[in-house]
């Protein structure tokens, strides 16, 4: 157990929306439900004293795992909220800038196979770097993890900028991977680059998912589910099965996109990685798909995302909860059944914790990690009537 990092059960913060008032994120939505029907929020600190916890996931029985980006570490939180380092071989895991040990996902069959997945920077034998998705097996006592497979390698990187990298096991059993464009002009529109994409693969073998649009073609495009992205930070599957992403914009236009097999979302920076083109450039050849929500100017840096469940959330039930880094808030975005934007809310009571990176649903609660660079926390958020 790491001393100084255990957060015992702290005083519960019952946070209200100051009379129901909430701050709206820029939107052109219609059908706003008003400012008087949001719930209050109960926020508890699950763990503190952390350093950029990038992702957190449940392994059942009240236990959690989380990654920390720069230290390239995995930690177990037991049912008593005590922290235990998970011993891993991280010697070849590489961290630089925005890249390190990032996305974490737990296999649906974890109770039997103790299998988890990570996405991280990697140092190759020649000293160069890429980003890779690995499968690991945790020991019986959960004290160590062994890397068992490299599921996909060759995700591009240079300085570590725009490294992605979110993971999500879908209901059909495939693994969805959100990647960044590595701040390289050619990656987003090049289907044989794995940068600026969402990738879909067999989580057990690493093979391209057979229903990918280009699964029968040659090259790396076999892995590609969608392309034309800048830096995918969040992935979520709605109750109706639809797939969604959140990604960082330039100086404007963070995006939430509804994903579809083979779609191009239109990011194409100019020569020399000129970021003045729009996030969705409809002048490109072929068809481009516009965002379902966009921040406008300036960017607020949307990050991890999940869909809210449970009737106790009231009007927020079924919304997409999105962590916001630069804008320091938890944002709730409501889409209609056919995927049209209805409204956004960013409750003032959830703007007190600084930069928010990952958002994970465990039962009807939300787990949110802060990314302030020091004394970061994992928060548990539930609604209060």
Count of individual helical segments:
1
CATH architecture classification name = 6 Propeller
> Into how many domains do the coordinates divide?
1
Major sheet details: 5 strands, antiparallel
- The CATH superfamily is identified as TolB, C-terminal domain
Radius of gyration: 20 Å
Protein structure class: mainly beta
Hey, roughly how much beta strand do the residues contain?
Answer: 35-45%
Order of helices and strands: EEEEEEEEEHEEEEEEEEEEEEEEEEEE
- Report mean pLDDT, rounded to a whole number: 92
CATH topology: Neuraminidase
Helix content: under 10%
Give me the count of strands.
27
Written overview of the protein:
This protein has one helix at 110-113, and strands spanning 13-15, 22-23, 40-50, 53-60, 63-68, 73-77, 83-86, 93-94, 101-106, 115-123, 129-138, 145-155, 166-169, 174-178, 197-202, 224-227, 232-237, 243-247, 255-259, 293-294, 302-307, 320-324, 329-335, 341-347, 356-362, 365-370, 376-384. The relative contact order is 0.15. The strands form 6 sheets. A 5-stranded antiparallel beta sheet has the order 1-3-27-26-25, with no helix packed on it. Strands 2-24-23-22-21 form a 5-stranded antiparallel beta sheet, with no helix packed on it. The two termini are 36 Å apart. Strand 18 (243-247) and strand 19 form a beta hairpin. It has one domain: Neuraminidase. It is 1% helix and 42% strand. The longest helix has 4 residues, at 110-113. It is globular. The chain has 1 helix and 27 strands.
């Amino acid at each position: 157990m790491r001393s100084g990092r255990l957060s015992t059960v702290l005083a519960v913060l019952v946070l209200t929306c100051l009379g129901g008032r909430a701050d709206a994120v820029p939107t052109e939505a219609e059908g706003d439900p008003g400012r008087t029907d949001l719930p209050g929020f109960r926020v508890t600190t699950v763990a503190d004293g952390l350093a950029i916890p990038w992702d957190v996931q449940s392994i059942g029985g009240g236990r959690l795992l989380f990654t920390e980006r720069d230290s390239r570490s995995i930690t177990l939180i037991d049912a008593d909220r005590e922290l235990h380092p998970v011993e891993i071989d991280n010697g070849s895991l590489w961290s630089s800038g925005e890249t390190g040990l990032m996305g974490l996902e737990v296999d649906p069959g974890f109770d039997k196979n103790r299998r988890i997945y990570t996405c991280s920077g990697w140092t190759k034998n020649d000293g160069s770097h890429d980003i890779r998705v690995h499968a690991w097996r945790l020991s019986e006592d959960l004290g160590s993890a062994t890397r068992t497979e490299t599921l996909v390698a060759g995700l591009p990187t240079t300085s570590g900028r725009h490294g992605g990298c979110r993971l999500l096991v879908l209901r059909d059993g495939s693994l969805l991977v959100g990647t960044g464009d590595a701040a390289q002009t050619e990656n987003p529109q090049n289907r044989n680059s794995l940068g600026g994409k969402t990738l879909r693969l067999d989580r057990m073998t690493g093979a391209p998912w057979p229903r990918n649009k280009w699964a029968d073609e040659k090259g790396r495009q076999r892995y590609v589910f969608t392309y034309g992205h800048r830096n995918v930070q969040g992935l979520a599957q709605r109750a109706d099965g639809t797939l969604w992403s959140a990604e960082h914009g330039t100086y404007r236009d963070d995006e939430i996109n509804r994903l579809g097999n083979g779609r191009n979302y239109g990011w194409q920076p100019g020569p020399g990685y000129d970021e003045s083109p729009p996030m969705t450039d409809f002048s490109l050849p072929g068809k481009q798909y516009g965002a379902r929500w966009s921040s406008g100017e300036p960017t607020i840096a949307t990050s991890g995302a999940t869909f809210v469940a449970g009737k106790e959330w009231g009007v927020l039930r079924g919304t997409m909860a999105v962590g916001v880094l630069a804008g320091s808030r938890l944002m709730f975005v409501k889409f209609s059944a056919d995927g049209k934007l209805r409204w956004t809310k960013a409750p003032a009571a959830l703007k007190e914790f600084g930069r928010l990176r990952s958002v994970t649903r465990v039962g009807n609660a939300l787990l949110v990690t802060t990314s302030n660079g020091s004394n970061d926390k994992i928060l548990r958020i539930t609604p209060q009537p």
